[in-house]
Predict the 3D structure of the following.
Amino acid sequence: MRILATDLDGTFLGGSDRARTALTRHFGESPDRTLLYVTGRSSRSVTELVRRGKLPRPDAMICDVGSYVATADGNPVQGEVMEHIRATWGDRGERVRSAFAGLTGLRLQPDFGPFRVSYYFDSTAELAEAHATADALGCDGLVSDNLYFDVLPRGVNKGTTLARLMREWGVAPESVLVAGDTLNDLAMLAAGFPAVVVANAEPALLAQLPPSDRILRASAPGCDGILEALRSRGVEVSDV
Ligand SMILES: [Mg+2]
């Protein structure tokens, strides 16, 4: 297992500093291992966290719920994966904004990348209508953490983008450990890679996880849960 493909909030940003440091040394500071963030945050938000020392510098990142692949500096990674995202999204940004402007209970988020449109929702939102509106525009609607409604290019999510990127890199699924905690992680947790759901996971995610020997439900939160998964698979990670 030489690649850690991890969600950030609640996952790599969760658990103890001690566990995060151990994972950083193992994946982030080793030339033959790879630390890959797979997050709902924008690349700007991640690079800001790295700049402030809240996160180690990754090798690469999948941002914006799978709709943007970036270098550690936040620049788009040129290649088939980004080409697919760009072509699938087309010019839908403005059309999504105007179609969603009339829906109640949805508020535009302040910061997201160029190939999605993202909202917060509250209890007054009609999610079925929001999903139907996204669908009519040729997009996917995705709810996560009982808070976020993302409008994404059809078929693009954390799982499909990670799978495409790993194929492009020529990586076997068994070389990857996927880690997550909320519903927008479901697609990558169920994408056929070895995976861990950390203990602080959203109940709705736990309810929708398919039964699979590949997916460990950790007893520890955040980074401690990731360490638990690695060690249960015989990967030696040094303590700090
Ligand atoms: Mg999360």
